[in-house]
């Protein structure tokens, strides 16, 4: 089971953002194997002079995933993983864990007895392997019309794998974030983009949409194995009538189909609402394709967790997890 989200170089991309270190726990048992990638973050409040830690999935998706198992033994293997990881967490002073499970792999269902599992929202994408013509089958009628009009008007596109620079992309991306009044989490800095190239350059597929030799839209996506994950994109205001965002997705679909990819995963919306504007936009490229996205919580050391909540004047019932980080995260 291969996916970029389970590679350590991908996790390292988010060490600075999460203020932690990317680590890997490989569990091997006679029942099978589990691969678990996470970022370990120091908790600011020491307990009895000792630093404790919590875990979080790197930006995107992940969580523990079964890589080898006999059919029917998934839950037994997950139980053995929990026992081993509980011991690991105690030895490494790990207090709690927040997991973003992978919608495509549905790994949340294998570990639902290990973590407190919460269904967050639906995600969507374009299924490239199920249809000979995914544009015809997955794209909405109005989307196909927008793309056709744009191409007839002279809009073109080009695809680059492993681009040399993201300088132009950053400019158009920041412009788009300002236009959309995006949250601070989406304003990635120069180091982030430099690390994208140095750590994952060979996994980047870069899409550009042009009109009269001017770039009017750009998209940065990751590909690994036979899957593509859209990541960041930007378009120019003045060319909205030429549907650059639609042509970006069309170009990626054409490239993916030609290169033997099975899926473009676009993720979900900003909320769980089926009327979420971002989700409805993405669904225009995946009429037949949806996945369930779950998150997971786990307190690995209840005694220390309680002490941290007392130190930070938070309660176990706080909606934020982990509760002891609630004020820090909100203020940040």
TrEMBL record:
<dbReference type="GO" id="GO:0005737">
    <property type="term" value="C:cytoplasm"/>
</dbReference>
<dbReference type="Pfam" id="PF13480">
    <property type="entry name" value="Acetyltransf_6"/>
</dbReference>
<dbReference type="InterPro" id="IPR038740">
    <property type="entry name" value="BioF2-like_GNAT_dom"/>
</dbReference>
<keyword id="KW-0808">Transferase</keyword>
<dbReference type="GO" id="GO:0071555">
    <property type="term" value="P:cell wall organization"/>
</dbReference>
<keyword id="KW-0133">Cell shape</keyword>
<comment type="similarity">
    <text>Belongs to the FemABX family.</text>
</comment>
<keyword id="KW-0012">Acyltransferase</keyword>
<keyword id="KW-0573">Peptidoglycan synthesis</keyword>
<dbReference type="GO" id="GO:0009252">
    <property type="term" value="P:peptidoglycan biosynthetic process"/>
</dbReference>
<dbReference type="GO" id="GO:0016755">
    <property type="term" value="F:aminoacyltransferase activity"/>
</dbReference>
<dbReference type="InterPro" id="IPR003447">
    <property type="entry name" value="FEMABX"/>
</dbReference>
<dbReference type="InterPro" id="IPR050644">
    <property type="entry name" value="PG_Glycine_Bridge_Synth"/>
</dbReference>
<keyword id="KW-0961">Cell wall biogenesis/degradation</keyword>
<dbReference type="GO" id="GO:0008360">
    <property type="term" value="P:regulation of cell shape"/>
</dbReference>
<feature type="domain" description="BioF2-like acetyltransferase">
    <location>
        <begin position="139"/>
        <end position="270"/>
    </location>
</feature>
<protein>
    <recommendedName>
        <fullName>Lipid II:glycine glycyltransferase</fullName>
        <ecNumber>2.3.2.16</ecNumber>
    </recommendedName>
</protein>
<dbReference type="InterPro" id="IPR016181">
    <property type="entry name" value="Acyl_CoA_acyltransferase"/>
</dbReference>
